[in-house]
Amino acid sequence: MWRDPEEEGRISPGGLCRGVRSPPAPHRMHLLTMIFLLLMLQARLTQTLFPSPEDGWQIYTSAQAPDGKCICTVVAPAQTTCSRDPRSRQLRQLMEKVQNISQSMEVLDLRTFRDLQYLRNTESLMKVLDTKLRATDSQRNVNAKSFQELKDKMKQLLPLIPVLDQYKSDTKMIVQLKEEVRNLSNVLLLIQEEMGAYDYEELQQRVMFLEARLHACMQKLGCGKLTGVSNPITVRASGSRFGSWMTDTMAPSADNRVWYMDGYYKGRRVLEYRSLNDFIKGQNFVQHLLPHPWAGTGHVVYNGSLYYNKYQSNIVVKYHFRSRSVSVQRSLNNAGYNNTFPYSWGGFSDIDFMVDENGLWAVYTTNQNAGNIVVSKMDPLTLEILKTWDTGYPKRSAGESFMICGTLYVTNSHLAGAKIYFAYYTNSSTYEYTDIPFHNQYSHISMLDYNPRERVLYTWNNGHQVLYNVTLFHVIKTNGE
Length: 481
Known about the structure:
Blueprint: E1 10-11, E2 20-21, H1 25-49, E3 57-62, E4 73-75, H2 86-139, H3 144-157, H4 160-194, H5 197-220, E5 225-229, E6 233-237, E7 243-246, E8 258-262, E9 269-273, H6 276-281, E10 285-289, E11 294-302, E12 305-310, E13 315-320, E14 325-331, E15 352-356, E16 359-364, E17 372-378, E18 385-394, E19 401-404, E20 407-411, E21 419-425, E22 430-437, E23 445-451, E24 456-461, E25 464-476
Helix pairs in contact: 1-2, 1-4, 2-3, 2-4
Protein name: Olfactomedin-like domain-containing protein
Coiled coil: 174-220
InterPro entries: Noelin_dom, Olfac-like_dom, Olfactomedin-like_domain
């Protein structure tokens, strides 16, 4: 509730100093309000004056929040406001005035606090003096001793005179500060009216335009370099220690089916859940019985078909869910199998299928490659190998691996404390060692795959089905249109 400043801060020690005021608290509150308003206006003006970026945008995007919403953070090229803009110049001048007023108020506040302490200390002295004066007035005779006592008391009160004079001066300063704040309020109201609805609508249109541009850029240039992995999101706890679960990376957005394959060898039963919510609840699923058992956990669902490694062989199989039949199968020449070159956790993980923004991949190794990880780009229709890269990284030293935007990322362990340690770039046939930590919550990862549609990592961790969001770094060149 607003209260009249004139009615506050009155000091009346012993009834002798009525009318002496300290700096009213509402003035300071009003001043803080003005400073806040100025900062808000300056920030808004700065946003309004930004032109289109001429240089490359840096975009860090964490693809999916826990609530399913896409997160994208843009670091735009540095821009500066136009120093000749009259409103910007006027706001700077007002900010300087407010700063000066603020400093004056602080000095005044400290001085008033000090003087108040002095007045409180002299209050008892004033009461004694008042009592003696009343007694003297009633007796109408003053002896020498009483007169000397009164004289001594009066000497003790002499320092109060400059304090009261200072209060008079401070009161005048408060009146001046009130007037300056009132003038600032009027000027700010005028600026606010001048920057009113038109600039707000213009800013809103600008934001919408930038959002549309950013969305278009992300659609066209969705690839980026992995810079971070979120904390794990446990979706469900089910099945054995080892297994795999996935969605179709090529399915339309309305198709949210989940496929579930428990175990790492000799399995043939694939459960198809209608949605992620049904998978969480363990309901509404159909069963597919594969004609050939699988090996490992490196399966993927891509464009309506399951790609997996046939048990005790280096044969890769494409199984079509709708027709419930094998579309094609082919031997992956020289590829190790049956725990010849598995990941560090074993589990017949010799051949690992992956899908990213560029299509279907197979990760494995051969004797000719001395057990180092081999990456092959595959034709999803025929399972023919289109191109192969030797990464030079020993597969048995890898905990798991996954592809993002043509880059193979390798973890250094499947146990607690694992991190993404190695990256191989197929577009340049180069590699680098990385240090990207992620929280291995259940201490035994047996499946780790990237889903480019959702931009998340699917993980099977010690009987838990877990998701990780990823953060990618993009540099998008623009021409400032």
